[in-house]
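Subgroup meeting minutes
Present: P.N., E.W., G.H.
Scribe: E.W.

1. P.N. recapped why we're keeping a running log of single-chain structure predictions: easier to compare across weeks, and new members can see raw inputs and outputs side by side.
2. G.H. added today's entry (186 aa).
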Amino acid sequence: MSEEKTTQETDAWFTLSGDVNSDMVHRVFEAVSGMSENGVETAHVLIQSNGGYVSDGLCLYNFLSNAPVKFVMYNAGAVASIAVILFLSGTRRYASETARFMVHKSHATASPGARPDALNIIVEGLRADDARTESILRKHIELLPEQWAIHQYSDLHLTARDAKVARMINEVSDFSPPKGVRIRNI
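Output recorded in log:
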């Protein structure tokens, strides 16, 4: 059997879009179960997400980083907030020329009239989330000191070219499934 035929049989192509939340976690768990059962070795996943819940993004990052399938991630539009952490679970990562990334610190809204002890709990939770996500960012990417400074207090936007310099992606390249393959939506 030719190498090209073997690659086609062990690679599969997927799209994943929407908010990073418990519904996405469930969909990804189900999809990876199917991939494993069907002998998929490499899953090419196009992600389109403006983010969502930190805990769900961290769960997906940890799950996909240790799954029995290798993930190749693509950004063809926008991957933002906690979706960037999900994106970083890929062993190889690509972005289209016109794609963008955005990372920022965690945020929350307190109830009107919240008491100081309740506010303190919210602040401690945000600090814990920021420590967890920043450790993953630092493991995978190399931002300039000026970029880390922006990230400290604001949204940091990266073009595909910026992401390449920061090692967030391997190359600027499009999600291009081979003609005739089935593309599944997760």
